[in-house]
Design brief:
Distance between the termini: 23 Å
Structural class: alpha/beta
Number of helices: 12
Bound molecules: 1,4-dihydronicotinamide adenine dinucleotide
Largest sheet: 7 strands, parallel
Helix content: 25-40%
Mean pLDDT: 97
CATH topology of the largest domain: Rossmann fold
Order of helices and strands: EHEEHEHEHHEHEHEHEHEHEHEH
Amino acid sequence: MNITFFSSKPYDQQFFQEANQAYNYHLKFLEPHLHKSTAVLAKGTDVVCVFVNDAVNAEVLEELAAQGVRLIALRCAGYNNVDLVAAARLGIKVVRVPAYSPYSVAEHTIALILTLNRKTHRAYNRVREGNFTLSGLMGFDLHGRTVGIIGLGKIGLATARILKGFGCHVLGYDIAESEESTSIGVDFTDLDTLYKRSDIVSLHCPLTPETYHIINEHSIGKMKKGVMLINTSRGALIDTKAVIKGLKTGQISYLGLDVYEEEADLFFEDYSGIVIQDDVFMRLLSFNNVLITGHQAFFTSNALSKIAEVTLQNISDFEKNVPLKNAVS
Ligand code: NAI
Protein backbone atom coordinates (compact mmCIF):
# COMPACT_ATOMS: atom_id res chain seq x y z
CA MET A 1 0.00 0.00 0.00
CA ASN A 2 1.12 3.53 -0.77
CA ILE A 3 0.11 5.99 1.93
CA THR A 4 0.48 9.78 1.65
CA PHE A 5 0.45 11.77 4.87
CA PHE A 6 -0.66 15.41 4.87
CA SER A 7 0.16 17.91 7.66
CA SER A 8 2.87 15.58 8.84
CA LYS A 9 5.39 16.54 11.52
CA PRO A 10 8.65 14.84 12.59
CA TYR A 11 6.83 13.14 15.49
CA ASP A 12 4.28 11.61 13.06
CA GLN A 13 7.13 10.18 11.00
CA GLN A 14 8.83 8.74 14.09
CA PHE A 15 5.77 6.95 15.46
CA PHE A 16 4.42 5.78 12.08
CA GLN A 17 7.82 4.46 10.96
CA GLU A 18 8.06 2.46 14.20
CA ALA A 19 4.53 1.02 13.81
CA ASN A 20 5.14 0.35 10.08
CA GLN A 21 7.84 -2.20 10.86
CA ALA A 22 4.96 -4.69 11.19
CA TYR A 23 3.53 -3.77 7.75
CA ASN A 24 6.28 -2.42 5.49
CA TYR A 25 3.92 -0.07 3.64
CA HIS A 26 5.32 2.73 1.50
CA LEU A 27 4.87 5.93 3.52
CA LYS A 28 5.16 9.40 1.94
CA PHE A 29 5.23 12.23 4.52
CA LEU A 30 4.17 15.69 3.31
CA GLU A 31 4.17 18.84 5.43
CA PRO A 32 1.40 20.85 3.68
CA HIS A 33 -2.21 20.69 4.81
CA LEU A 34 -4.55 18.84 2.47
CA HIS A 35 -6.68 21.31 0.50
CA LYS A 36 -7.78 21.88 -3.07
CA SER A 37 -4.36 22.88 -4.41
CA THR A 38 -2.34 20.21 -2.55
CA ALA A 39 -4.65 17.24 -3.27
CA VAL A 40 -2.73 16.58 -6.49
CA LEU A 41 0.27 15.54 -4.38
CA ALA A 42 -1.61 12.34 -3.56
CA LYS A 43 -1.28 11.12 -7.15
CA GLY A 44 -0.70 7.37 -7.39
CA THR A 45 -1.43 6.72 -3.75
CA ASP A 46 -4.03 4.27 -2.36
CA VAL A 47 -4.51 5.93 0.99
CA VAL A 48 -4.41 9.51 2.23
CA CYS A 49 -3.72 9.96 5.94
CA VAL A 50 -4.97 13.26 7.39
CA PHE A 51 -5.21 15.14 10.69
CA VAL A 52 -7.66 17.53 12.37
CA ASN A 53 -7.11 20.63 10.25
CA ASP A 54 -6.97 19.03 6.79
CA ALA A 55 -9.94 20.15 4.69
CA VAL A 56 -11.46 16.95 3.33
CA ASN A 57 -14.40 18.64 1.58
CA ALA A 58 -16.25 17.56 -1.58
CA GLU A 59 -13.90 19.44 -3.93
CA VAL A 60 -10.82 17.87 -2.34
CA LEU A 61 -12.40 14.40 -2.34
CA GLU A 62 -13.21 14.70 -6.04
CA GLU A 63 -9.57 15.55 -6.76
CA LEU A 64 -8.38 12.65 -4.58
CA ALA A 65 -10.75 10.22 -6.31
CA ALA A 66 -9.38 11.38 -9.66
CA GLN A 67 -5.84 10.64 -8.38
CA GLY A 68 -6.90 7.07 -7.50
CA VAL A 69 -7.24 7.44 -3.73
CA ARG A 70 -9.57 4.81 -2.22
CA LEU A 71 -9.28 5.38 1.52
CA ILE A 72 -9.06 8.40 3.85
CA ALA A 73 -7.38 7.36 7.10
CA LEU A 74 -7.91 9.96 9.81
CA ARG A 75 -5.17 9.82 12.43
CA CYS A 76 -7.52 11.40 14.97
CA ALA A 77 -10.93 10.76 16.57
CA GLY A 78 -12.96 13.76 15.33
CA TYR A 79 -14.17 13.70 11.71
CA ASN A 80 -16.02 17.03 11.43
CA ASN A 81 -13.53 18.06 8.69
CA VAL A 82 -14.63 15.29 6.27
CA ASP A 83 -17.60 15.50 3.89
CA LEU A 84 -18.86 11.96 4.44
CA VAL A 85 -21.68 12.28 1.90
CA ALA A 86 -19.23 13.23 -0.85
CA ALA A 87 -16.84 10.44 0.19
CA ALA A 88 -19.64 7.84 -0.03
CA ARG A 89 -20.73 9.20 -3.42
CA LEU A 90 -17.15 8.87 -4.74
CA GLY A 91 -16.67 5.38 -3.26
CA ILE A 92 -13.93 6.55 -0.90
CA LYS A 93 -13.98 4.85 2.51
CA VAL A 94 -13.17 6.83 5.66
CA VAL A 95 -11.63 5.35 8.82
CA ARG A 96 -10.54 7.00 12.05
CA VAL A 97 -8.96 6.27 15.44
CA PRO A 98 -11.99 6.43 17.74
CA ALA A 99 -10.06 5.93 20.96
CA TYR A 100 -6.34 6.20 21.47
CA SER A 101 -5.92 7.66 24.92
CA PRO A 102 -8.85 9.44 26.53
CA TYR A 103 -6.47 9.94 29.48
CA SER A 104 -4.21 12.21 27.40
CA VAL A 105 -7.04 14.69 26.75
CA ALA A 106 -8.64 14.31 30.19
CA GLU A 107 -5.31 14.93 31.94
CA HIS A 108 -4.64 18.01 29.78
CA THR A 109 -8.10 19.29 30.69
CA ILE A 110 -7.15 18.98 34.37
CA ALA A 111 -3.81 20.71 33.64
CA LEU A 112 -5.71 23.70 32.23
CA ILE A 113 -8.08 23.79 35.23
CA LEU A 114 -5.25 23.59 37.77
CA THR A 115 -3.04 26.10 35.99
CA LEU A 116 -5.82 28.66 35.60
CA ASN A 117 -6.85 28.19 39.21
CA ARG A 118 -3.42 28.14 40.94
CA LYS A 119 -1.68 30.31 38.30
CA THR A 120 1.43 28.14 38.20
CA HIS A 121 2.38 29.62 34.81
CA ARG A 122 2.63 33.07 36.39
CA ALA A 123 4.32 31.78 39.56
CA TYR A 124 6.99 30.02 37.45
CA ASN A 125 7.98 33.31 35.81
CA ARG A 126 7.85 35.29 39.04
CA VAL A 127 10.10 32.93 40.98
CA ARG A 128 12.64 32.80 38.14
CA GLU A 129 12.88 36.58 38.38
CA GLY A 130 13.40 36.47 42.14
CA ASN A 131 9.87 37.75 42.84
CA PHE A 132 8.40 35.70 45.66
CA THR A 133 5.26 37.78 46.29
CA LEU A 134 1.89 36.04 46.22
CA SER A 135 -0.50 38.87 45.26
CA GLY A 136 -2.61 37.86 42.28
CA LEU A 137 -1.85 34.15 42.66
CA MET A 138 -4.72 33.17 44.98
CA GLY A 139 -6.74 30.16 43.89
CA PHE A 140 -9.59 28.12 45.32
CA ASP A 141 -9.96 24.53 46.58
CA LEU A 142 -11.22 22.27 43.83
CA HIS A 143 -12.53 19.98 46.57
CA GLY A 144 -16.24 20.60 46.99
CA ARG A 145 -16.63 22.59 43.73
CA THR A 146 -19.18 21.67 41.07
CA VAL A 147 -17.91 20.80 37.59
CA GLY A 148 -20.30 20.44 34.64
CA ILE A 149 -19.20 18.12 31.84
CA ILE A 150 -20.93 18.38 28.46
CA GLY A 151 -20.40 15.13 26.55
CA LEU A 152 -19.99 12.01 28.68
CA GLY A 153 -18.11 9.86 26.19
CA LYS A 154 -14.66 8.38 26.66
CA ILE A 155 -12.89 11.68 27.41
CA GLY A 156 -15.72 13.25 29.40
CA LEU A 157 -15.90 10.18 31.66
CA ALA A 158 -12.10 10.00 32.07
CA THR A 159 -12.19 13.68 33.13
CA ALA A 160 -15.10 13.02 35.51
CA ARG A 161 -13.19 10.18 37.19
CA ILE A 162 -10.19 12.43 37.90
CA LEU A 163 -12.43 15.23 39.20
CA LYS A 164 -14.23 12.83 41.53
CA GLY A 165 -10.78 12.00 42.94
CA PHE A 166 -10.35 15.71 43.75
CA GLY A 167 -13.62 15.62 45.70
CA CYS A 168 -15.59 17.62 43.12
CA HIS A 169 -19.31 17.31 42.59
CA VAL A 170 -19.63 16.35 38.92
CA LEU A 171 -22.71 17.18 36.84
CA GLY A 172 -23.01 15.74 33.34
CA TYR A 173 -25.05 16.30 30.23
CA ASP A 174 -25.15 14.13 27.11
CA ILE A 175 -27.73 13.33 24.46
CA ALA A 176 -27.67 9.75 25.80
CA GLU A 177 -27.42 8.88 29.51
CA SER A 178 -24.90 6.13 30.22
CA GLU A 179 -24.87 3.68 33.12
CA GLU A 180 -21.13 4.21 33.42
CA SER A 181 -21.55 7.90 34.26
CA THR A 182 -23.97 7.03 37.07
CA SER A 183 -21.66 4.32 38.41
CA ILE A 184 -18.76 6.78 38.79
CA GLY A 185 -20.99 9.27 40.58
CA VAL A 186 -21.79 11.79 37.84
CA ASP A 187 -25.16 13.48 38.37
CA PHE A 188 -26.86 13.49 34.99
CA THR A 189 -28.81 16.69 34.41
CA ASP A 190 -30.20 19.03 31.77
CA LEU A 191 -28.05 21.73 30.21
CA ASP A 192 -29.75 24.65 31.98
CA THR A 193 -29.17 23.10 35.42
CA LEU A 194 -25.57 22.31 34.50
CA TYR A 195 -24.96 25.93 33.46
CA LYS A 196 -26.69 27.31 36.55
CA ARG A 197 -24.87 25.16 39.12
CA SER A 198 -21.36 24.64 37.74
CA ASP A 199 -18.28 26.53 38.94
CA ILE A 200 -16.40 24.98 36.03
CA VAL A 201 -17.89 23.96 32.65
CA SER A 202 -15.82 21.59 30.49
CA LEU A 203 -16.70 20.62 26.91
CA HIS A 204 -16.23 17.03 25.70
CA CYS A 205 -18.87 16.59 22.98
CA PRO A 206 -18.03 16.36 19.25
CA LEU A 207 -18.53 19.25 16.85
CA THR A 208 -21.80 18.64 14.97
CA PRO A 209 -24.44 20.98 13.51
CA GLU A 210 -26.25 20.65 16.90
CA THR A 211 -23.20 21.54 19.02
CA TYR A 212 -21.84 24.36 16.81
CA HIS A 213 -21.56 27.43 19.11
CA ILE A 214 -23.27 25.57 21.95
CA ILE A 215 -21.45 28.11 24.12
CA ASN A 216 -22.88 31.45 23.00
CA GLU A 217 -24.10 34.69 24.55
CA HIS A 218 -27.33 33.00 25.65
CA SER A 219 -25.72 29.97 27.33
CA ILE A 220 -22.98 32.10 28.91
CA GLY A 221 -25.75 34.25 30.42
CA LYS A 222 -27.13 31.16 32.17
CA MET A 223 -23.80 30.32 33.84
CA LYS A 224 -22.65 31.32 37.33
CA LYS A 225 -20.91 34.70 37.42
CA GLY A 226 -17.18 34.05 37.50
CA VAL A 227 -17.40 30.60 35.86
CA MET A 228 -14.34 28.76 34.55
CA LEU A 229 -14.86 27.55 30.96
CA ILE A 230 -12.66 24.81 29.46
CA ASN A 231 -12.65 23.55 25.88
CA THR A 232 -10.36 20.69 24.84
CA SER A 233 -12.83 19.34 22.27
CA ARG A 234 -13.34 21.41 19.09
CA GLY A 235 -12.98 25.18 18.68
CA ALA A 236 -16.34 25.90 17.03
CA LEU A 237 -18.24 24.62 20.07
CA ILE A 238 -17.59 28.15 21.35
CA ASP A 239 -18.66 31.47 19.86
CA THR A 240 -15.36 33.21 20.57
CA LYS A 241 -16.75 36.75 20.32
CA ALA A 242 -19.43 35.93 22.92
CA VAL A 243 -16.74 34.51 25.22
CA ILE A 244 -14.64 37.66 24.86
CA LYS A 245 -17.69 39.69 25.87
CA GLY A 246 -18.18 37.38 28.88
CA LEU A 247 -14.52 37.84 29.89
CA LYS A 248 -14.85 41.63 29.67
CA THR A 249 -17.96 41.74 31.90
CA GLY A 250 -16.50 39.24 34.40
CA GLN A 251 -19.24 36.69 33.71
CA ILE A 252 -16.36 34.35 32.77
CA SER A 253 -13.42 34.54 35.18
CA TYR A 254 -11.22 31.88 33.64
CA LEU A 255 -10.95 30.48 30.12
CA GLY A 256 -8.85 27.45 29.16
CA LEU A 257 -8.67 26.47 25.50
CA ASP A 258 -6.79 23.76 23.64
CA VAL A 259 -8.82 24.39 20.49
CA TYR A 260 -9.96 27.52 18.67
CA GLU A 261 -12.56 27.91 15.93
CA GLU A 262 -10.08 29.46 13.47
CA GLU A 263 -7.14 27.28 14.53
CA ALA A 264 -6.60 25.77 11.07
CA ASP A 265 -4.68 28.89 10.02
CA LEU A 266 -2.54 29.00 13.18
CA PHE A 267 -2.01 25.83 15.14
CA PHE A 268 0.87 23.38 14.67
CA GLU A 269 3.00 26.07 12.93
CA ASP A 270 5.68 28.48 14.18
CA TYR A 271 4.49 32.07 13.65
CA SER A 272 6.71 33.56 16.36
CA GLY A 273 8.54 35.70 13.79
CA ILE A 274 5.54 37.26 12.05
CA VAL A 275 2.56 39.45 12.95
CA ILE A 276 -0.51 37.29 13.59
CA GLN A 277 -3.46 38.75 11.67
CA ASP A 278 -6.30 37.14 13.66
CA ASP A 279 -7.51 40.01 15.87
CA VAL A 280 -10.01 37.85 17.76
CA PHE A 281 -7.30 35.40 18.76
CA MET A 282 -4.94 38.22 19.74
CA ARG A 283 -7.68 39.76 21.92
CA LEU A 284 -8.04 36.41 23.71
CA LEU A 285 -4.30 36.35 24.38
CA SER A 286 -4.48 39.80 25.99
CA PHE A 287 -6.50 38.51 29.01
CA ASN A 288 -4.40 37.32 31.95
CA ASN A 289 -7.14 34.85 32.93
CA VAL A 290 -7.04 33.07 29.56
CA LEU A 291 -4.76 30.09 28.98
CA ILE A 292 -4.44 28.70 25.45
CA THR A 293 -2.53 25.65 24.25
CA GLY A 294 -2.27 24.78 20.55
CA HIS A 295 -4.29 21.55 20.24
CA GLN A 296 -1.82 19.51 22.27
CA ALA A 297 -4.21 17.67 24.58
CA PHE A 298 -3.72 14.42 22.63
CA PHE A 299 0.05 14.85 22.53
CA THR A 300 1.48 12.05 24.68
CA SER A 301 3.82 9.28 23.56
CA ASN A 302 1.16 6.72 24.55
CA ALA A 303 -1.42 8.40 22.33
CA LEU A 304 0.93 8.79 19.34
CA SER A 305 1.93 5.10 19.47
CA LYS A 306 -1.69 4.03 19.62
CA ILE A 307 -2.72 6.41 16.81
CA ALA A 308 -0.03 4.97 14.52
CA GLU A 309 -0.87 1.36 15.40
CA VAL A 310 -4.64 1.76 14.93
CA THR A 311 -4.28 3.80 11.71
CA LEU A 312 -2.06 1.15 10.10
CA GLN A 313 -4.37 -1.62 11.35
CA ASN A 314 -7.32 0.25 9.75
CA ILE A 315 -5.38 0.42 6.48
CA SER A 316 -4.44 -3.26 6.71
CA ASP A 317 -8.13 -4.18 7.21
CA PHE A 318 -8.98 -2.17 4.10
CA GLU A 319 -6.21 -3.89 2.12
CA LYS A 320 -7.42 -7.34 3.20
CA ASN A 321 -11.03 -6.37 2.48
CA VAL A 322 -12.17 -7.32 5.99
CA PRO A 323 -14.93 -5.29 7.73
CA LEU A 324 -13.68 -1.83 8.73
CA LYS A 325 -14.45 -1.64 12.45
CA ASN A 326 -13.32 1.99 12.62
CA ALA A 327 -15.21 3.14 9.52
CA VAL A 328 -16.95 6.52 9.70
CA SER A 329 -20.24 6.75 7.91
P1 NAI B 1 -16.92 10.02 22.31
O1 NAI B 1 -17.58 9.73 21.02
O2 NAI B 1 -16.48 8.87 23.18
O3 NAI B 1 -17.88 10.94 23.22
C1 NAI B 1 -18.58 12.05 22.76
C2 NAI B 1 -19.84 12.16 23.60
O4 NAI B 1 -20.51 13.37 23.23
C3 NAI B 1 -20.82 11.01 23.37
O5 NAI B 1 -21.20 10.43 24.63
C4 NAI B 1 -22.00 11.67 22.65
O6 NAI B 1 -23.25 11.08 22.97
C5 NAI B 1 -21.90 13.08 23.20
N1 NAI B 1 -22.63 14.06 22.41
C6 NAI B 1 -22.88 14.07 21.07
N2 NAI B 1 -23.67 15.11 20.73
C7 NAI B 1 -23.90 15.78 21.89
C8 NAI B 1 -24.65 16.94 22.20
N3 NAI B 1 -25.35 17.60 21.25
N4 NAI B 1 -24.69 17.36 23.49
C9 NAI B 1 -24.03 16.66 24.45
N5 NAI B 1 -23.30 15.56 24.22
C10 NAI B 1 -23.25 15.12 22.95
O7 NAI B 1 -15.70 10.96 21.99
P2 NAI B 1 -14.41 11.26 22.88
O8 NAI B 1 -13.32 10.31 22.52
O9 NAI B 1 -14.79 11.41 24.29
O10 NAI B 1 -13.96 12.69 22.27
C11 NAI B 1 -14.75 13.85 22.47
C12 NAI B 1 -14.22 14.94 21.56
O11 NAI B 1 -12.93 15.35 22.00
C13 NAI B 1 -14.00 14.54 20.09
O12 NAI B 1 -15.19 14.65 19.34
C14 NAI B 1 -12.96 15.51 19.64
O13 NAI B 1 -13.61 16.62 19.07
C15 NAI B 1 -12.25 15.94 20.92
N6 NAI B 1 -10.84 15.54 20.96
C16 NAI B 1 -9.89 16.50 21.18
C17 NAI B 1 -8.55 16.18 21.22
C18 NAI B 1 -7.49 17.21 21.49
O14 NAI B 1 -6.30 16.92 21.29
N7 NAI B 1 -7.81 18.41 21.94
C19 NAI B 1 -8.12 14.79 20.98
C20 NAI B 1 -9.21 13.84 20.84
C21 NAI B 1 -10.52 14.21 20.80
